[in-house]
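for the writeup, i need someone to sanity check this before i put it in the appendix. the sequnce is what the collaborator sent (i think, or maybe the updated version? ugh). structure was predicted straight from it, no edits. if anything looks off just tell me and ill rerun, i have time this weekend
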Amino acid sequence: MESKNHFCKELIKWGYSVKDGTRVWDISSSKLWYLTPELAKGYLKLLEFEPFKKNVFDVEVELLKQNMGKIVEESGKKEFNMIDLDCSDGYRSEIVAKSIPSDVKARYCLVDSGSFFLDIAFNRLKKIKIKNLKINEPINVGMSQAGETIASLRNVEYPENIVLLLGSTLAAHDVNELLYNIGEGMLPGDVLVIANAIRVGEKYTKLEKYKNKFFEDWLFVVMKDLGFKKEEVEYDARFANERVEGFFRIKADKEIECDGKKIIIKKGDEIIVAVQYKYYENELKDYTSMYFRDVKTYVDPRKEYCLVVCKK
């Protein structure tokens, strides 16, 4: 099974660390969340999960509707690529595309590591009839190639870039590594728009919501593809390493074969399958200011979500 090989390779690539006598395997790269249609469909169900939809997804969509047109106008760009990194199913992409002012010439570029999502997003955008908007062929690459992908799309017809990093994608990555990578593909005058949840009050609270069975069922697909049965693992979540970690605790020894190699997973081991970093608004400003010369934020009324507009 192709997905099993991918997950196994991540185990081999990163190995394990030992913390307080426990072996911890970390395969939490977000690209693995959408690796199979089953995982991708599980993520789409998250968008229908009422607490998430109401408090996160709908808030972000409203911020995009209210501000993206103004952000494009203030960028001063008239001929540019709108590069949507980690575009998911394209719902947010459609919101952005419809907000592009009519007096500009734009090419919308969908980028994602999951072909399942790219097909949905591409078909969604093709149905939009906007005279000044061209839909580029979708690009199937991971976030590790973000910088070179951004640079490669620049040409004579579309000489500038507005880059999108929506859906709290930033929260699933090392912030410095990702911002540096993206910035390397941008030139002075290019703009990055980040949509991300922000924190108010205590940073690490409400842990129980990350232990919801919804997340357990979605993320178990990874363990199932590795060959585990439900009774052989136990899902849990914790705050550690400045992030939320969703992980499975192993309840039985397991030998996994991959490309002629054997991986021995022991009872008591932990496999981290999902992480989310948490930031205050001022932290996001501080991080982005390290890589961009001009940073501006648009915050929702409850101050729990924001757009961060960064000019290179």
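The chain has nine helices and 15 strands. The chain has a mean pLDDT of 91.
thx in advance!!
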